[in-house]
Amino acid sequence: MRKLALVMTPMVFAASVAQASTTGSVGSAAVTKDKTQVEARFGYSEADDSSSQDERFRSRVQIDHGFTDFYAARVVLQQDKRKGNNYEHDSITIDNRFQFLDAETSGFDLGMRAGYQHKGGDKKPSAVTFGFFERIPFDAYEVRLNQLFAHDVGEESDDGLSAEARFQVTRAINDDHRLGLEGFHDFGNLNEQGGYSDQSHQIGPVAKGKLPLGNLKYEAGYRVGISEAAPDHNFKVFISRSF
After folding, report:
1. N or C: which end of the chain has fewer CB within 10 A?
2. Parallel, antiparallel, or unpaired for β 177-189 and 161-172?
3. Quick check: helix, strand or coil at residue 25?
4. How far apart are CA 225 and CA 47, in angstroms?
């Protein structure tokens, strides 16, 4: 499928363990003491027939708890189904989240995450991950920026640092819902750069807000691939509940 002739230069640089996964989000820096959040995520991608991203279904379940107003921890279980294969466990990730600045006192949120992703079975290598997270509120608008990095560890690991940048801009349309645009820009291993077409760049609309039952929240979106290496179509649906 012909890619859209669009080039975007990210405002900041970032990274990921998995190539702009459909279960990935543009995360927040916020940490709230004693808050627990449980979330289920589902993603699907379509690409060229020969691509590993074609007809690929991913899912993710995570639980996050704030121990203080500065520190929270998260456990993430990820599953994966590639075309022609079974639905399998993919990885478990332990994330440590830190919030350094709060929008109420500083005008924007600033945070950092550091974690370890352990890949199961033949899906190695595992990875050490870290990243920076910013949220900038402006009247009805909210801007989120993520800069994410990963380094392979263990069996089948490669040298070099992988990097990805993500952004999301949303506007409140009422008290319960927001609409906007987001972009995922995966640069791959910084030691093996092959140019824009070899990287995964995606952009598309996103909606998020509250559901009218059970104190649930949702996030749904679609991203189109705008570089040759990116999947053509990417869909996501997230459902979460906080306690």
Report:
1. C
2. antiparallel
3. coil
4. 9
- Can you say whether residue 175 is alpha, beta or left, with left for phi > 0 and alpha for psi between -120 and 50 degrees? alpha
Task: Give the residue among 133, 113, 148, 132 at the shortest CA–CA distance from 19.
Answer: 148
Which residues have a Cβ under 8 Å from the Cβ of 30 and sit 6 or more positions away?
A: 99, 109, 111, 135
pTM attached to this predicted model:
0.89
Read off the pLDDT of residues 186-200 as tens digits, 9 standing for 90 and up.
999 999 988 999 999
- Give the separation between CA 29 and CA 132, rounded to whole angstroms: 8
Peptide bond into 212 cis (omega under 30): no
* Calpha distance 16→186 (Å, rounded): 7
Residue pair 216/240 in contact by the 8 Å Cβ criterion: yes
State both tokens at 145.
């920026």
Write out pLDDT tens, residues 99-143. Answer: 999 999 999 999 999 999 999 878 889 999 999 999 999 999 999
d(CA 77, CA 89): 8
Judge whether 24 and 184 are in contact, CB under 8 Å: yes
**Tokens for 6?**
């669009």
Q: How far is CA 217 from CA 63, 177, 238, in A?
A: 14, 10, 8
